Each structure stands twice: as C-alpha cells, then as structure tokens.
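Protein modeling request. Please complete all fields; requests missing the sequence field cannot be processed.
Requester role: graduate student
Desired output: 3D structure, token encoding
Chains: 1
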Amino acid sequence: MMEDKQPQILAEILISEEQTNELGKALGRLLGYKMQRKVQDEYPLSASIFLVWCTIYNYKDGTLWDPIFARLGIARNAKDCVFLGELFLATISEYNLLPAPDTGKRYLTPIVMHGYISDHYAKRLLDYLNAVYISYLEYNVTDSALEKLWSELFNISEEQVNLRDRLEQLTEQENLLRSRSGQMEIPAILYGHRRRTIEQHQREAGTRHADLVQTEQRLFELDQQIEGMELLRGEFDTCKTAFTTEQPDGPVEGDVWDEIHHLGRQISSEFDRRLEEFDSEHKALKRQLYTYKNSLSIAKDRSVVLMTAVVKLGGGDI
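Delivered output (318 residues):
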C-alpha cells in the first residue's frame, strides 16, 4: 500500500468556497474574543488553510487582507494582520511546506504562492497557456517540445549574459568616476556653472560671430554703394557746371532755363539725401560692429576661462 505523499502547497488540501467562509467565521469569532493564543496553539493549520483558500477565491489587484477580514467578520487591524501573517509563516515552516522566495512582501508572497493562482486570474492564465499551446507548441505537448519551449522562453541567453556583464562593467566605471570626482579639487569658478553654461557661452559666441560677419558684409556693400553714389554725384556736378556755364547757340525761353536749373537742384538734393542716409547707416553699422566685437570677445573669454578650469580639474588629469 502506497503512503500518501505530504502536500508541499496548502492549495493541495482542497476545501470549497462555502467551507472556506464557514472556517473564516469560526476563526473570526475566536479572534473577536481575543483568543489568538488558542488559534495559535490549536488551529494553526486550519487558519493557514483558510488564508490560502480565501486568497484563491477572492484575491485580486494586491488586496490581500480586505477579503480575509471580510470573511472573518471582524474589522481589519494591524495587530491581527501581523498575527495571521506570522502564524502562516510559522505553520509552513513547522510542517516543512514549500517556502516562498524573499520578494520584500513578507506575507503576501507566501500566502499567494501557496494558492497557486487566484480565481480572478485563473481564466486569463489559461487563455495565455492556450495561446502558447496553439500558436507556439502547435498542439504538440511532447517532452521535447516542452523542453524546447522552456529553453527558448526561460533560459538566460548568451546575449542576456553579455548585457549583464556589460551593465556590471558600466556600473564599475560609474563608481570609479564618482570616486575620482570626489577627489577632484573643483575651482571656485565652476561652482554654479554647469555644462550648459559653457555650451551657452559657446552658442552666444557663435551667434555674435555670425552677426559680426553679416555686419562686416553689409559695411562692405555700403562702402561700395557710397563710393558709386559719390562718383555719380561728381559726374553729375561736372555736367551741371558745364551746362550752366556754356551759352546756348540759339535763344532759350526763360521758363525752360529756370526749369532746367530747378531740375538740377532737385537731383543734387536727392544725391545729398541718399548720401546722408548712407552715412547714417554706415555710422550705425560701425557702432553695431563694435558692440558685436565686444560681445564676441566677452563670450569667448568666458568660455575659455570655464574650459580652462574644467581641464585643470583634478590637477590636469582629464
């Protein structure tokens, strides 16, 4: 006759939802009358089975204790949470049941683990398994097919190992850099100035340089325009003088002569106006050019000072 094998998971001790609720009411009466010691001494296994099956029937979205205390029929309190949790851990240890891995959730993980999976998630899990059975295994559940599935889906691949090694190397380099940076003597000028400050000075220098080039180009073009305008003005004045000093061969009416002189004065006045405009623009561009040169020089100096301080970090080690 074969001996019954001792369960390793409390979910293997089957009880119905109705039995679970009845067990919860009985335990709740004892806890309500402050008889925790009696539960601990006489009913530790019953209490543990209740915790597991109550979780199987009701657990979802991380809510462990609320449905448990609802079935116990008493108000939830921290003292009884700790009592039941510690009682469960002591019970699985005493009966050599399967221990849970340390996940940081002292009571949740072992209780949920001993219930396999709650009813709330069972259908979804079966849907996933069915999808694997149909699409991946293609209805083939032989040992070789299952072994191949396990190997491909769950074994750590060589790439993952390499990534882990690379991560460890990067972490080690980061720690080394942190250690070295802690030993560096940071110049006072770098306090309050970060990388973006240097980049800002460099961008400002680039902008001022572009403005400077554009202004110099405009000055060059303006000088050519002024030179051309003055040349035209000179030629016009020469023609005007020659025209006004020479006497016409025949008689000229006075109105026509006056109109010619008036037109000459208008043209001369227009030359003067345009040359004054050119001169004003030329002076403004000169002032602007001076401003851009100063701004460019300041931005470059600031950038050089900061970069020099950065290079000197740690006594010139970088």
